[in-house]
């Protein structure tokens, strides 16, 4: 295959992989956006030619899937600007306020860091930023008023506040540091800034779009109020409407509060994940927001779910970069590793800060050119979009036998793409490491369906994920009834696997077809449960079971 042909077939395969008769409407919407963002095919004729060629090689897709594929690609050809690339004449403008040192409220730890570091991020992607920290009421009002006056028609506007927020009479208020002036709830109208009024004033300037992000859902008690018989905690924000072409975001659901905690020691929990995606090149903001919300929920054990009201009419990108005719360049260190690698050998690209935008180049250099047999990609920043690209590479793969993806942020959606590719059973892959990537029982279902069809994979590592007794039961049913090739399954350090799985494990071992090694150490098995398993497997000479670093 010629190099200039590869990108065309690559994209067609990618869409066809995902658009199958079991795809949900949500999947199809996601694919439409993704297709338009990545489309490089130049004319309708080439699409039809490639589809005809592809359908002969991969007849498993039904006619409906094919028609959907052609429709989506042709829509992308005729609507190149569906994902907004902002007009160069318009500006990107941001106002960022972080209040930390309150006179009455408890001092907050991360709010000024949130605003300062977001300013740095947005400046790097060509926003004109205005930054304010520890502002009293007069200073806040003056800065906001000046910022709004400078907004021009067509500007992209980003407003951010980190500090205390409060609600009163179905209105949200951003609290300045001189909150000692707020002696009763009605004083919010005079000694705080009304959030709904700010958004309304911004939208009256006719921006192309406005992002209104309020990191202001902390508890805000007012015990000093005398004679008040209502609730004393005014913290949290009530639901807000988003005018046309705007997006409203809180770090948690409306009418909820969250603790002033951090997972990186520098920023609030929510903002830590915002910083991971906010400046990613050519990442549609809706997709970035979905990743942010997923990560917040995952790292809070589903206790914190961001609030959003999205009235954007087009899916904008904060960091739009023209990649037409430009080959993505890897960083020098990664490129040197690839240059030095021998053909059909192991390539180790672990912990290299690789992101989704690097995956295409990695596929081209490592899998296609070098035909590597082992590819290590642990500890990078690859998400479900990178997994989608890798899944297509697996369809073409005849040399890659081991793929290590542990420590990335693939989640169940990324696993779905990989599982679909491996279900076609065209790949030479034998070892797949998905340790600590955010897999739940949903991801296990995708992998189990894959194992019913795949006859090449022999080792599957899923340690340090969020798999429960239900997920183990799904695997057990698959391995005793359908799969004849998987030899090693690693489920260690999945803390939701308990003694409830003991009977399932024994049944799986008793009726296994090919499995000869099972790792379940550091799960949540009791001492009695472990002893029961040890006793059971002493008579089983053709399988190794690892329990708390003990092997039978």
UniProtKB/TrEMBL annotation:
Quote the Gene3D superfamilies the UniProt record gives.
3.40.50.1460, Ribonuclease Inhibitor
Concerning Pfam families, the annotation shows: LRR_6, Peptidase_C14
Superkingdom: Eukaryota
Q: Which BP terms in the Gene Ontology apply to this protein?
A: proteolysis
Start and end residues of each Peptidase C14 caspase domain: 91-316
Q: Which GO terms describe its molecular function?
A: cysteine-type endopeptidase activity
* Xref: InterPro entries: Caspase-like_dom_sf (IPR029030), Caspase-related_regulators (IPR052039), Leu-rich_rpt (IPR001611), LRR_dom_sf (IPR032675), Pept_C14_caspase (IPR011600)
| Protein known as | Peptidase C14 caspase domain-containing protein
């Amino acid at each position: 295959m010629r190099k200039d042909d590869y990108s065309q077939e690559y994209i067609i395969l990618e869409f066809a992989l995902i658009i199958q008769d079991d795809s949900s409407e949500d999947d199809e919407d996601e694919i439409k956006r993704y297709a338009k963002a990545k489309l490089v095919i130049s004319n309708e004729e080439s699409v039809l030619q490639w589809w005809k060629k592809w359908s002969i090689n991969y007849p498993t897709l039904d006619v409906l899937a094919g028609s959907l594929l052609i429709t989506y690609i042709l829509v992308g050809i005729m609507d190149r600007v569906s994902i907004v690339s902002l007009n160069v004449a318009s500006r990107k403008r941001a106002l960022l306020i972080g209040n930390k040192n309150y006179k009455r409220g408890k001092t907050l730890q991360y709010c000024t860091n949130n605003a300062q570091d977001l300013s740095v991020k947005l400046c790097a992607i060509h926003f004109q930023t205005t930054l304010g920290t520890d502002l009293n009421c007069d200073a806040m009002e003056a800065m906001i008023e000046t910022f709004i006056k400078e907004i021009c028609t067509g500007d992209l506007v980003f407003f951010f506040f980190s500090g205390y927020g409060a609600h009163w009479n179905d209105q949200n208020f951003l609290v300045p540091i001189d909150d000692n002036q707020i002696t009763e709830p009605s004083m919010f109208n005079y000694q705080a800034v009304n959030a709904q009024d700010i958004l309304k004033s911004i939208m009256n300037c006719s921006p192309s779009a406005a992002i209104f992000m309020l990191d202001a859902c902390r508890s805000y008690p007012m015990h000093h109020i005398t004679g008040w018989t209502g609730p004393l905690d005014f913290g949290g924000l009530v639901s807000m409407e988003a005018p046309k072409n705007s997006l409203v975001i809180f770090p948690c659901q409306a009418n909820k509060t969250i603790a002033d905690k951090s997972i990186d020691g520098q920023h609030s929990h929510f903002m830590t994940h915002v910083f991971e995606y906010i400046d990613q090149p050519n990442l549609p903001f809706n997709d970035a927001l979905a990743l942010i919300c997923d990560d917040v929920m995952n790292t809070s054990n589903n206790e914190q779910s961001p609030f959003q009201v999205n009235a954007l009419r087009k899916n904008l990108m904060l960091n739009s970069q023209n990649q037409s005719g430009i080959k993505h360049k890897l960083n020098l260190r990664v490129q040197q590793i690839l240059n030095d690698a021998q053909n059909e050998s192991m390539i180790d690209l672990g912990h290299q800060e690789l992101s989704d935008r690097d995956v295409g180049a990695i596929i081209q250099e490592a899998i296609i050119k070098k035909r590597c047999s082992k590819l290590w990609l642990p500890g990078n920043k690859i998400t479900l979009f990178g997994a989608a690209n890798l899944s297509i590479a697996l369809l073409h793969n005849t040399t890659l036998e081991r793929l290590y993806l542990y420590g990335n942020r693939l989640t169940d959606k990324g696993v779905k793409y990989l599982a679909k590719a491996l279900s076609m059973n065209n790949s030479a892959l034998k070892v797949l490491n998905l340790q600590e990537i955010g897999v739940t029982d949903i991801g296990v279902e995708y992998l189990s369906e894959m194992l019913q069809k795949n006859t090449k994979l022999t080792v599957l590592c899923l340690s340090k994920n969020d798999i429960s007794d239900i997920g183990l039961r799904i695997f057990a049913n698959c391995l005793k009834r359908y799969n004849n090739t998987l030899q090693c399954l690693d489920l260690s350090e999945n803390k939701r696997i308990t003694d409830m799985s003991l009977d399932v494990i024994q049944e799986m071992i008793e009726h296994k077809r090919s499995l000869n090694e099972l790792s379940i150490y550091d799960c949540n098995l009791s001492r009695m449960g472990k002893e029961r398993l040890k006793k059971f497997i002493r008579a089983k000479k053709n399988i190794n079971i690892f329990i708390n670093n003990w092997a039978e």
